Structure formats: C-alpha cells, structure tokens
Amino acid sequence: MTTSCCPDNSWGAPLHVSHGTKSLDGSRGELCKIGPSKDLEIYVSRPQGEGASQKALCVLTDVYGLQSRLFAICDKLAAELQLTVVALDTFRGETKDMHLDDFKEWLGSHPFERDTSESAKDDKSAVYPVKEDIESCFEFLLEAYTINSSDVGVAGFCWGVWAMTKACEMKLFRCAVGFHPSIKIESMVFGGDQEAITKKAADNAPILLCVAGNDLDNLKPSQGGALANIITKSKAKDTSDNDKAAPRCVEFPDMIHGWVSRGDTSIEKIGICIRILIITIVSHYKNGIILHHPSLSPFIALKAIQLHAPAQTKAPDRQGQDKE
After folding, report:
1. What pTM does this model have?
2. Per-residue pLDDT tens for 73-93?
3. Distance between CA atoms of residues 67 and 51, nearest Å
C-alpha cells in the first residue's frame, strides 16, 4: 500500500505555483499570522460590500498548503455564501514535496490533538496539533469579526478531510464538505480506526464528501463502501426535513484525486464538469438548504467551490505528479 495520502495517479503539486511567494495576484483576500506564537498563516476572504453574515467557513488544505488556486476557491465561497472564509496553513509553509523521504513522520508531527501522556513528555520534536490551530482560528474570528465558533462550517481537501472528520468527531463544526478525501490518514499515520471516527463525525454533523474516481472504494456508494454507508445512514440525516439534503458521498468517477484544488483547469472538459455538478446539486439537494443547520449549508458550499473545479479524466505526466 502506498504511504502517500493520495491514491496512485493523483494530481501532484499545483501547476504554476510558487509556494515561497504565495502570490495574491488577482485574489481579494489577505494573508496574516495568528495563534499564540503568531506562526499560523491564514488566508482571509470576505464578501465585498456590507453584506457579510455573522457566519464563517474554515478551510483545511491538502498537503500543498496555501496556494493561488485555494485563494480563488476561498474568494468564490465568500462571495457566493456572503460569509467570511479562513484557510489555515497548518503545515507552516511546508509541503509534501519537501518531505518525500519522511512523509509519514511529517504528517505525524501534525496530530489532531497534543499527546499529553507520560511517554510523550520527553519527546522534544516540534508538534503542531490541528485542534489548536482550529481554536486559534475561532479566536481570530471572534476578535476580528465577532463570529462565534457555533456559526462556523468547514471544508477540507485530501488531508484536510481527515482533519475535518476529526474536528466533527469532537463537535467543533456544525456541517462539513470534503473533496477527494484522505481519511485513511487516521489508520496509515496514527494507527486509528477510520470507520470509528467517521461514524462519530457523521452523527455530529451533516457531511458531504465528493469522491474522485481513483479514491478508495470505502468512500464509494457504488462499491458498498463502509465509510460511504456510515455517512449516508448517520444520525445527522435525521436532523433535516428535506431528504434531498441528506448527508452522503457523491462520486465523480471521471475525476482524479486532487482535481478541485490541484487539477489543470485549462482542460476543456471543465465546462461539462460544471454542468454535471450544478445538475447534481439542484436535483439532489433542492437549492442546497439544510433546514436544521442554519450556520452553513455544505451543499451550497459545494456549488460555489465547483465553479473553480478542474475537469479531467487522466492526470498528465508532469513533475510533481504522485505515481507511487
């Protein structure tokens, strides 16, 4: 089994992106640093004008961190949903390509919670718990915009879907959307149980996962996937008066893992992909309203994000592509 969080033949590093500069050209948001040590960089995007609601969306990235495609996604979400969007650079400027030889160890230095056991007290390795970064985000939103943590939803990409799932397991967010998920990190890196954390998370919040064709079968309803079944049958389903807004995994069999945040948007098939996505949303989710979760509709979020989504059936050979 590959030691990567991404399946074989996935999209690699984003095209034409300089992680050293994190160019904001064309972006509407801004970068700033928060947290106790002021070392957690975030990208903040808010809708133009005075129409912003007192709600927010936290974005958990893939293993390539903050980059221009993600900025565009955040800007679109902020505009479409009229709320504040904050993307977290939990990896502190580092990316997967800097850790090809120690990838699992690198991910292991970003657990969801800090290990407070006796055996961990003598370990002097740098550790950046994701939960602490999310809490710093909540503090920032409250201080800067008087937005309470109870009014924050979450979106995750790849690694970020694992982090999103762990957060929902602990009831940190009220609803969630995940793209090309890598929930397997729970077992691959931390020796945990993917099904156990998914069940708790899905019972606590309505979750929508958008699954690529080469993602693991346990995420696919068409394959009777265990995680897909858990989400579909979750207790969160019972909180909605609208069956079309039910939590679920939606398959995009022609897409490749990484397509939303890293795929090549210049490929012509993007037009077809957008039409399919919009039809799917309107047909299945009836304008994207989850009546009992007013903090944020993940299905509206899906519609907004996909306007930036690439469409492709095969990742081209290029430097940085994952082929493990």
Report:
1. 0.84
2. 888 778 877 889 999 999 999
3. 26
